[in-house]
Design goal:
The complex is a heterodimer of chains A (256) and B (294).
Chain A lengths: L2 H35 L14 H7 L5 H5 L6 E2 L11 E2 L14 H5 L19 E4 L15 H5 L7 E6 L8 E6 L9 H5 L7 E4 L1 H4 L48
Antiparallel strand pairs in A: 1-2, 3-6, 4-5
Chain B lengths: L23 H7 L1 H22 L3 E2 L2 E2 L1 E4 L2 E4 L3 E4 L1 H11 L4 H17 L3 H5 L3 H15 L11 H16 L3 H5 L1 H11 L4 H15 L3 H6 L1 H10 L4 E5 L9 H5 L8 H7 L13 H4 L5 E5 L4
Antiparallel strand pairs in B: 1-2, 3-4, 4-5, 6-7
Classes of the chains: A alpha+beta (256), B mainly alpha (294).
Amino acid sequence: MSPTRRSRRDFLSQAARGAAAAALGGVLWAHLVREQTHASLFVLRPPGARPETDFLSRCIKCGQCVVDCPYDTLRLADAGSPYPVGTPYFIPRDVPCYMCPDVPCVKACPTGALDPALTDIEQADMGLAVLVDQENCLSYRGLRCEICHRECPVQNKAITIVNHPRKVSKHAIFVPIVHGEACTGCGVCEKACPLPESAIKVLPRRLAQGKPGDHYRFGWTADTPITQEFEPAITPPEETTGDAEAGLDYLNEEIP
Amino acid sequence: MRGAGNDPRLGERPVRGFELPESLGGKLWFWRYIILRRVVQLLVLLLFVGTFRWGWSLAGSPVLRGNLSASELLGFVPLADPFAVLQLLLARGAVASRVLIGASIVLLFYVVVGGRVFCSWVCPVNAVTDLAGWLRRRLGIRYTVRPPRAVRYWALGLALLLSLLLGVAAFEWISPIGMLHRELIFGWGLGWVAVAAVFVFDLLVVKHGWCGHLCPLGAFYGLFGGAAQVRIAYDATTCTQCGECAVVCPEPHVLDLKRAAETGMIASGDCTNCGRCTPVCPENSLRFGWRMRI
């Protein structure tokens, strides 16, 4: 065997071994990354955070939002936490977001993972408060608790109190109702709930909220004008004319 | 290595070995670079920790906000890890200008002072792997697997490829450097497991395993070491080729003395400018120098 042929064989076998090792390493590596990036179902992000996938692809894990958070609300996920490693999150029951008007966390973000377009903190969308436990909520039990309503920083918009009259023998109950379009998910209500385990909890919107069809028109609501010029979203097919026999108008015509 | 009788340049000069000085002052002087490196490493870490934990500020601006992935110095100088930013760039196709500027500043700095200066003077894992290397020598552990040094370039390529495919900065999600560094600043978690794995790997499996063979961040900075201005200058006229430098060097293949004799310096980008070889050289043939003046 000539030396060149042997060296070519060596080269090929080495290259094959290298490629196999790289492929194996790559698969393992990709698995570790995907494991991390998928583990974020319940995580609550800082104000201005982009949708989760977009956020994860932008965040450089520098923790500058955490440093600039004046209330120590934000934390950086360590390797043992259930959240994607190195990314910022908060747990409202520990420390909620107190909605700084100057939004320092967003200003600190160097990559735009927290969208710099968010300048009005009331437009933040960290999640949605949900009264998850009506059985134990004191308001639902007939007490005038309403602490979540009174603590809510988006006063009288994100949480309102609605009274439900009950049977004659009992007094009315006053229950907190969360309004999704105003709630920022700051979690002050969750922190404020006097129960040992909060009855109202902030959840990521994708878990907490449904989505109405784009074509729905709620004609009975006060802000929808009642009009005769209603145009259906889908135009019905034009009536066929010609040879086809007209249908029977059985209310007005005699049955032949 | 010891003995250089066959090299005509050396003539009849005796080959001296290195001896650690007796006096404390002599020892401290001998350890000057390792002491300085630990001081710099701790100082960088302390600036991050102090700014986060104790609110250190200068003229109203936070001193050093963030961590090694991205930070802001004195409230206006953006800094960023150029390798992390490159991964973000591949993952998304675009990055914000602030980190792009930060990465350029950092990259420029390391191109001047020596690419892998990051590894031996800043990186927090360096202390861990140095400890493993020291223990290895102390315990006389000679066993080592010898994977090729080029594995780290494969890892570098994989990091970039996976960033492109997965749409996230792939190395940042598994980096033991990032885990250790973040948890030192922001609070302890399970990152130490990854760091312990690196330590055990270096101690028992591969000599200089992580930094010398696997780490894609080191490989990345190594690419820029070739253009670095601060380099170890080599004086072939005084060198007796005693081999003391190769014993302490974590990347001994960079001490290609034939090539160094031609260029007058250790030119390889893999050199981390750690300075271990300079005090250990009995003939003072290896010293820090500027590329321009070598």
